[in-house]
């Protein structure tokens, strides 16, 4: 069998739900459950920053015309005549159905029918010429369409409510406002109905922020251990440079209007290793020049000048890779913009700190004299003597 139909739907990253909840009940009638879902949808839609709120899983509400077959037979009026009278009452568009025993007629109507009463007032002519109305031979009212699907949440009947965020919104702040609204709505629910939170994107963001914080602290600890041979002061300079680069990068992104989402956090995690490298390379070269007998001030100048071109070239090679990612057009570009530009901003700020701030701090923070062979940590010299003797 070949392809019968192809549907293309244009999507945007902000159309992805940031929260999904379920109204669960096996006891409450579906029309009442739908009213609750619609009420929650309206309340979520009023929260500033929400782009759209919807509910899913309910059958289509339609106008139902239930014919009295005994009455029709007595009046010698066929069911098709009722359906034809409704079709003729206005320009055709879908409305609902006429049920006549086992038979079902699809009814279409125009702008004239706004209520069941309007349909009940449509004139008919019986077989004996008697003037009637639809309401004389049928019961007209709103009803649920026959469902063509079922919706379940953990095996229970449910309606699903989702919300998407507006452009340039902070998902963490927005989810907090949604959670407060859900808590208030939950207090108004009747017995037999539960509000279950199925998905909250802010939890993923918090998890990633926790991961970033953990990786950051681990990096600081490992760098501290690695730099101890250079001395505590040299390690302290690096401990200042790394978080400073990260904070400046976050501030730059906030100034550009970017929010801290999952892709931005992924960008910071990727850039973290680069931030560490720049700080270590800079301070290690300064210490190397101090071991030559130079003052901390002069060593900072000479060391920064010596590796300046290499550090700049390395940084801009990384920028050349990730900048196109942040500037990609179309839907993919909107999705990866935060990731690419986060990496670019972070490595550029790392370069700025390594080139300007790290040498300045080192010039005034490191001791100008008394450097042992392995920096200020003279215990390393004693350890090396023991190591040579043992070998």
The CATH topology annotation of the largest domain reads as Multidrug efflux transporter AcrB transmembrane fold
Main beta sheet: 5 strands, antiparallel
Number of strands: 11
Report how far apart the termini are. 77 Å
Just name the CATH architecture of the largest domain.
Up-down Bundle
Portion of residues in helices? 55-70%
Q: Number of domains in the coordinates?
A: 3
Q: Brief description of this entry?
A:
By secondary structure, the chain is an alpha+beta fold.
Provide the descriptors you would attach to this structure in a database record.
391 residues, alpha+beta, Alpha-Beta Plaits, 17% strand, 56% helix
Set down the secondary structure blueprint.
Layout: E1 17-24, H1 30-45, E2 50-56, E3 61-67, H2 69-74, H3 79-88, E4 94-100, E5 103-108, H4 116-120, E6 123-125, E7 131-133, H5 134-137, E8 138-144, E9 152-153, E10 156-165, H6 171-186, E11 194-200, H7 201-227, H8 232-255, H9 262-291, H10 296-326, H11 330-365, H12 378-390
Parallel strand pairs: 3-4
Antiparallel strand pairs: 1-10, 1-11, 2-10, 3-8, 4-5, 6-7, 9-10
Helix pairs in contact: 6-7, 7-8, 7-9, 8-9, 8-11, 9-10, 9-11, 10-11
Question: How does this model look, in words?
Answer:
The structure is a single chain. The protein has 391 residues and is of the alpha+beta class. It folds into three domains: 13-59 and 148-203, Alpha-Beta Plaits (2-Layer Sandwich); 61-144, Multidrug efflux transporter AcrB TolC docking domain, DN and DC subdomains, CATH 3.30.2090.10; 231-390, Multidrug efflux transporter AcrB transmembrane domain (Multidrug efflux transporter AcrB transmembrane fold, Up-down Bundle). Helix content is 56%, strand content 17%. The protein contains twelve helices and eleven strands. Strand 9 (152-153) and strand 10 (156-165) form a beta hairpin. Helix 8 (232-255) packs antiparallel against helix 11 (330-365) and helix 9 packs parallel to helix 11. The longest helix has 36 residues, at 330-365. Residues 372-376 have low confidence and may be disordered.
């Amino acid at each position: 069998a070949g392809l019968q139909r192809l549907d293309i739907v244009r999507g945007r990253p902000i159309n992805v739900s940031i929260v999904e909840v379920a109204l669960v009940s096996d006891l409450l009638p579906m029309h009442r459950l739908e009213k609750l879902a619609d009420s929650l949808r309206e309340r979520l839609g009023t929260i500033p920053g929400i782009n759209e709120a919807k509910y899913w899983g309910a059958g289509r509400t339609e106008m139902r015309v239930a014919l009295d077959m005994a009455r029709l037979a007595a009046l010698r009026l066929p069911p098709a005549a009722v359906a034809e009278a409704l079709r003729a009452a206005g320009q055709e568009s879908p409305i609902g159905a006429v049920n006549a025993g086992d038979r079902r007629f699809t009814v279409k109507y125009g702008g004239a029918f706004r209520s069941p009463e309007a349909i009940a007032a449509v004139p008919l002519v019986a077989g004996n010429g008697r003037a009637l109305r639809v309401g004389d031979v049928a019961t007209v009212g709103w009803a649920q369409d026959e469902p063509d699907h079922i919706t379940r949440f953990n095996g229970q009947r449910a309606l699903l409510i989702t919300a998407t965020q507006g452009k340039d919104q902070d998902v963490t702040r927005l989810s907090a406002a949604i959670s407060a609204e859900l808590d208030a709505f939950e207090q108004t629910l009747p017995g037999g109905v539960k509000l279950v939170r199925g998905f909250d994107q802010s939890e993923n963001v918090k998890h990633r922020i926790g991961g970033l914080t953990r990786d950051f602290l681990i990096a600081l600890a490992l760098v501290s251990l690695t730099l101890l041979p250079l001395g505590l002061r040299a390690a302290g300079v690096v401990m200042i440079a790394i978080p400073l680069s990260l904070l400046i990068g976050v501030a730059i992104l906030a100034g550009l209007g970017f929010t801290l989402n999952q892709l931005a956090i992924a960008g910071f995690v990727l850039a973290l290793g680069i931030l560490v490298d720049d700080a270590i390379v800079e301070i290690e070269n300064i210490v190397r020049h101090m071991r030559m007998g130079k003052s901390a001030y002069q060593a900072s100048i000479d060391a920064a000048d010596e590796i300046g071109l290499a550090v700049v070239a390395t940084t801009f090679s990384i920028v050349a890779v990730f900048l196109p990612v942040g500037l990609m057009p179309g839907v993919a570009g909107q999705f990866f913009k935060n990731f690419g530009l986060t990496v670019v901003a972070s490595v550029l700020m790392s370069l700025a700190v390594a080139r300007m701030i790290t040498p300045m701090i080192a010039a005034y923070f490191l001791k100008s004299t008394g450097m042992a062979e392995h920096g200020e940590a003279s215990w390393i010299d004693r350890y090396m003597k023991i190591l040579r003797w043992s070998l």
